[in-house]
Amino acid sequence: MEKKMEAGEYHSKDFDWEFVKNIVENDPSLSHHLHHNPQHDSHKYQQHSQPWQDFHSRHSSGKFFKERRYLLKEFPELVSCEENSKLLEVGCGNGSTVIPILRGSKNITVYACDCSSEALVRTKENIDRSIATVDNFHSFCCDFSSSQFPNWLACNHCRDNFMGKHSGGSKGVDIKYKCSLNEHCIGGVDFVTLVFTLSAVPKERMPRAIKECFAVLKPGGLLLFRDYGLYDMTMLRFEPEKCIGFREYVRSDGTLSYFFCLDTVRRLFTDAGFIEVELENCCVKAVNRRKGKIMYRVWVHGKFQKAF
Predict the structure, then answer these.
(1) What keywords tag this UniProt record (predicted)?
(2) Tens of pLDDT along 231-248?
């Protein structure tokens, strides 16, 4: 059984990233992870939302992902935020990110989206099971890598009017709604959480997806980022035929996974207009005592701000 880690351990530095880099780059059996093969680019995989729809249908128990309780320690801004703060959780999956946020911060209203309507059903079920009734959660279906976020997310006036007319918002709201103030929109959300979501987006769509997040943030708002890092244990498990691009892989179920280095993350977000606040590798050593294996996990932790 994998060693149980307390929330605080996730932000610790169990090892230096250069340590695992040296292991990988000196192991001939892992050489297929190190080089860019242009042949993969000529057969670029085009992902749609259906693989994730199927994924959440298969894992309908909602137990595939564990609740991410460590997030409130990684991102304390979510706890210390002002009253009536608003958060957009992008790629909510089964609610493993939004549940600890809803439980830990009473000042936040959460708007959550996913490309899979099945995921939204799982999220609602898990919230009802974990927290019971909440009035500060609303969800909607949207693939932010190929579609715009609804205009009401960026406008306080329209959002208040619209959500008042859709009291069943947790069942999903109409993303086609147009803002009544048009170019005079004011407001937006205070936070965007992008947690293990961007890695599931085709690499060529990432810049557009990040610009969508930038567009709905208030000036001074924060985007909170966490995702798979380069040479994470999960990356090293992929076989050569699963590689569809440089550091980009497709799982057997059709879903994608990309593994980030710090420079790639920095470039993606600063090119979209963000200011870097924090950016680092989070390196955690986990121990599977039953199998006697040490597992080196690498995640990228980042905070990016929209200028005032």
Answers:
(1) Methyltransferase, Transferase
(2) 999 999 999 999 999 999
